[in-house]
Specification:
seven-stranded antiparallel β-sheet, 153 residues, 7 strands, alpha+beta, 3 helices, elongated
Length: 153
């Protein structure tokens, strides 16, 4: 495919509200898989929206966005390796490609999994960030709000 066709390929459509609901679904699912509990001090997720930038630095004015969504969950340190392994295994079963995985107490973070979905192109990550704390992250690909006309390059 030429760069021009690739740059103008139709973007997936989703509202910011739906994207946030979708990301919450994924972080809730990872929390359950890990047998963790959302941290009450950080129960309100961090949802950061940003503009999409193309491969050649293109920036559109059509409302397209990406979402980076994260929550923290509590779980005793002794259970982190098992929890991250369970998340990894579940993601693989759901068709994700594992980009990175580790369970090594000599590293920081000691337990970590990063994965992308080959069709949907979303990214998920889970890792330990403190003694009894995991961070669970979902990042969307570039999304176009429903009803918006996609700008062409």
């Amino acid at each position: 495919m030429s760069d021009k066709k690739e740059a103008n390929a139709p973007l997936p459509r989703m509202s910011k509200e739906k994207a946030e609901e979708w990301a919450k679904h994924w972080t809730d699912s990872m929390t359950r898989t890990a047998k963790a509990t959302l941290d009450p001090k950080t129960a309100k997720p961090t949802a950061d929206y940003s503009n999409c930038t193309g491969k050649n630095g293109e920036s559109a004015d059509d409302g397209r966005f990406t979402l980076h969504y994260s929550v923290r969950a509590t779980l005793p340190r002794a259970q982190h390796a098992k929890a991250i392994r369970a998340i990894r295994d579940t993601l693989e079963e759901q068709g994700f490609k594992i980009q990175g995985y580790r369970s090594d107490p000599s590293k920081d973070p000691a337990n970590l999994v990063d994965a992308t979905h080959p069709k949907e192109h979303h990214f998920v990550s889970a890792g330990d960030v403190a003694e009894d704390l995991l961070v669970l992250i979902v990042a969307t690909p570039c999304l176009l709000p429903p009803g918006a006309n996609q700008q062409q390059f």
